[in-house]
Amino acid sequence: MSLRDAAAARHPSYVERLGRLVNIDSGSRDLPGLHDVATTLAAWCTESGLATRLVPVYDAAMAPLGDAVVARVRGTGTRRILLAGHLDTVFAAGTAAARPFRVDGTKAFGPGVCDDKGGVLAGLCAVETLLDTGRTAFGELTLLATPDEEIGSVGSRSLLGRLAVDTDVALCLECARENGDLVSARKGVADVELLLRGRAAHAGIEPERGANAALAAARLTVALQELNGRWPSVTVNVGVLQAGQRANVVADQARLVVDLRADRTGAFDEALAAVEALSRRPFVDGVTVELAVHAPTPPWERSPATGRLVELAAKVGAGIGVPVRDAATGGCADANLLAAAGLAVLDGLGPVGGNDHSSDEWLDLASVPDRVALLAGLVDAAARDGV
Predict the structure, then answer these.
(1) Catalytic residue among 36, 88, 115, 191
(2) What is the dihedral of CA 146, 149, 154, 160, to 10 degrees?
(3) Which domains does the chain have, with CATH numbers?
(4) What is the reported pLDDT for 297?
(5) Which of 10, 49, 170, 353 fits as disulfide partner to 338, beta carbons 3.0 to 4.6 Å?
(6) pLDDT, tens digit, for every residue of 118-170?
(7) Residue closest to 286 by CA, chosen among 358, 368, 371, 213
(8) What is the arrangement of strands in the sheet containing 102-104, beginning at the earlier edge strand?
């Protein structure tokens, strides 16, 4: 049986499973929902013959973030291949009830349908397709689904690092771009939090005794935004600005959260240094700034190894009638961390979808059999040909 035919035979099961997962809220840190999706996926993996375990994930303060699913199957060869996706979404509890999974024509809708439940299930379906057709040239094939990718994989980084040591190739299950492109490079990202501390005073009687943290935050915001354009492809966005509590009090505190992204390591480091330098400038006398960088993730620059994976995917795609192109994207993902660990990485290997993180998120169900066959074929080719 061909990979395409085997993938098509599993399509009804894929759609049924997708509906079940999408209808479970699993926003980052939603522990009950994340437990439900992890145990559901783990049960399917076990039913398909994979050795499956749940790995508890914690943040730096040892607060639980949910369980990662790690499912493995041994083959007949030597190459170790990792399929990596995630179970968490950006949506609050209650979203699945408010707009549950639905299918309209060839498109499926619902929270996390594309990012990344559709991708994770494509990974499992690809493993099953390989087993159905007896294509086990890999040494070991591992399916990973983490619970915290949407918050920077703050707890899963150590697990990703451990798995990378025992992996030759990482194929990541974020969905393909809307035009079908695979992803061969991603910007790095850092969330920079700046806490400004000033001095309160009565705004009408003695404002001169205060040190206005709100004013300092406003001036710092302008300076930060002006970093845009200094380096090609670097973006700096002040996404959160909070200050003060009452209009008749000189604000003694303020908070900024900045999203910084770059597609080159050198530019990423320089831009981060520029943000740190601005935090030391005295925008208002008496106001101090504390800076913290949360979950910095380095850029993933397209490497020769990734280029070879693209070529291999194109060869597989030509055999099943799926054109393969690749592109860089500004979004960050676990592919960045796996590439930083030294692996050959290719991403965007889930089905075609779009409008991630919005109420209009969609997945093209018609693309699923082709994309599952492409992923399964790439696993087989990477196991046989090496990268």
Answers:
(1) 88
(2) 50
(3) 3-187+299-385 (3.40.630.10), 188-297 (3.30.70.360)
(4) 96
(5) 170
(6) 999 999 999 999 999 999 999 999 999 999 999 999 999 999 999 999 999 99
(7) 213
(8) 102-104, 107-109, 362-364, 350-354, 175-176
Distance, in Å, from the CA atom of 290 to the CA atom of 82, rounded to the nearest integer, reads 39
Q: How far apart are CA 284 and CA 301, in angstroms?
A: 39
**Position 166, amino acid:** D
Q: Is 36 a catalytic residue?
A: no
Sign of torsion, CA 325 329 335 337? positive
Query: Tokens representing 55?
Result: 């790995």
Q: Return the pLDDT at 271.
A: 97
Please give the pLDDT value at position 296: 94
Q: Are 280 and 221 spatial neighbours (Cβ–Cβ below 8 Å)?
A: no
Q: How far is CA 249 from CA 197, 209, 217, 364, in A?
A: 14, 11, 16, 53
Residue 323, phi then psi, degrees to nearest 5: -65, 140
What is the reported pTM? 0.93
> Please, what sign has the CA dihedral across residues 60, 27, 376, 137?
positive
- Give dist(CA 297, CA 260) in Å, integer: 10
d(CA 232, CA 251) in angstroms, rounded, equals: 36
Residue whose C-alpha is closest to residue 133's, from 145, 125, 121, 142: 125
Q: What share of the chain is helix, strand, coil (3-state, %, to 5)?
A: 40, 30, 35
Catalytic residue among 115, 132, 149, 263: 149
Q: Angle at the Cα of 295 (from 292 to 301), degrees rounded to 5?
A: 125
Q: How far apart are CA 18 and CA 376, in angstroms?
A: 19
Q: How many CB atoms lie within 10 A of CB 210?
A: 21
Contact yes or no for 48/130 (Cβ under 8 A): no
88 is catalytic: yes
